[in-house]
């Protein structure tokens, strides 16, 4: 089966499609894509839903490497609302 492994940074991304055997896990896909040792990765997701390294994959899944947030979304929203109020 084929799965895509995605790693993204601000303004760019890397996508690798790999062939893994039936019953493969997220960890297997990361190894096949040579993305299993990324120190910036804080977790993984499948189509945006948090997953564990031992989560089983299905054909066509998109495995996403997650990075830490650069800003708290609540704080960013609050700052935008304050900026709009000042205008």
UniProtKB/TrEMBL annotation:
Pfam families: Ub-RnfH
InterPro entries: Mopterin_synth/thiamin_S_b (IPR016155), RnfH (IPR005346), RnfH_sf (IPR037021)
Coiled coil stretches, renumbered: none
Region (Disordered): 58-87
Domain of life: Bacteria
Family: Belongs to the UPF0125 (RnfH) family.
HAMAP family referenced in this protein's UniProt entry, alphabetically: UPF0125_RnfH (MF_00460)
Protein name: UPF0125 protein K6753_06585
